[in-house]
Amino acid sequence: MIRRHRLEAPDNRRLAHLCGPLDEHLRQIEATLEVRLSRREAEFRIEGARPAVEATMALIDTLYTMAQAPIGERRLQLALVHAREAVDPPARSVGGDAAAADPDAPVVLHTRHADLAGRTPNQVRYLRSILSHDISFGIGPAGTGKTFLAVACAVDALERQGVQRIVLTRPAVEAGERLGFLPGDLAQKVDPYLRPLYDALYDLMGFDRVTKAFERGLIEIAPLAFMRGRTLNHAFVILDEAQNTTREQMKMFLTRVGFGSKCVVNGDTSQVDLPKATASGLVDAAQVLAGVSGIGFTHFTAADVVRHPLVARIVKAYDRARERGDDS
């Protein structure tokens, strides 16, 4: 479909703000709405599928209305998100739209290597929480699939173009060991701490695709200590091993979430490696944020462990010891 759209009462200054420097805004519209867009003075020629063409015309009018001053990147991105939702209502997100509309529908994650679904009731609950909340917490013992399912959700969202990138982070806290100064650049220093996330990515996408995604900036490593001051728009952000954040770090991280983003926070409150006098940010967040609209919590138990059966028995044994008050 080809349509020509002419602005009413054209103003060259506002037209320049609408198009952006060197027509950069028009290029972003083309990429987001999958149309071909050209301009001659105040007339735009739009080529593409009918819903995308109609959304583009509406977006041009919207941007022209706000173009009394230069249009900032954040305002432009927010307008693009709304325009994309008009083309694909509701917005494409993890697990498919049917699961969001029907609470009894299965949640299936689509990745290049396999389609995945929760294997226990709490895993299904966890996937639904990620689907329906912008910020989701997964709290429970090792082996319950928290990290793997979170990465699967991120890959699914990236494949569906529900987000533009995946951001992985975790606190660099040693599990009772002193590792000293690690060699290499920033990524190499942080890699050992993020190995479980890498392993999940390799399982779901394959080594070559993960490598290319890093090169293209579709996957980013962001050490928790370096997150301050950032705003993460249109990203799927995963904070792993969150029990080792401090209260201040957790608050700082949660306030990084921007437009069009999802955030998943995972951790095991029984394996806190912080100094004895330091309170865990995950434990604190579970208390402070309980009941806050838009934030979901899923609590896993030993019954959700999907590793070797012995792992579930080990978790239960430590739980019993903790309940007796034994020093663990």
Keywords:
328 residues; alpha/beta; six-stranded parallel β-sheet; three-stranded antiparallel β-sheet; 11 strands; 42% helix
List the helices and strands and how they pair.
Elements: E1 2-6, H1 12-19, H2 24-33, E2 36-40, E3 43-47, H3 50-65, H4 73-87, H5 97-101, E4 109-110, E5 115-116, H6 121-132, E6 135-139, H7 146-159, E7 165-169, H8 186-190, H9 195-205, H10 207-216, E8 219-221, E9 235-239, H11 247-254, E10 262-267, H12 281-288, E11 295-299, H13 309-324
Parallel strand pairs: 6-10, 6-11, 7-8, 7-9, 9-10
Antiparallel strand pairs: 1-3, 2-3, 4-5
Helix pairs in contact: 1-3, 2-4, 3-4, 6-7, 7-9, 9-10, 11-12
Task: Specify the structural class.
Answer: alpha/beta
Radius of gyration equals 23 Å
Mean pLDDT: 82
- Taken as a percent bin, the fraction of beta residues is 5-15%
Overall geometry: elongated
User: How many beta-strand elements?
Assistant: 11
Unreliable sequence segments: 90-102, 175-179
What is the ordering of alpha helices and beta strands? EHHEEHHHEEHEHEHHHEEHEHEH
- What percent of residues adopt helix (DSSP H or I)? 40-55%
Our measurement of the CA-to-CA distance between the termini, rounded to an integer number of angstroms, reads: 67 Å
Name the strands of the widest sheet in spatial order. Answer: 8-7-9-10-6-11
Characterize the largest beta sheet: strand count, sense, and whether it forms a barrel.
6 strands, parallel
Supply the number of helical segments.
13
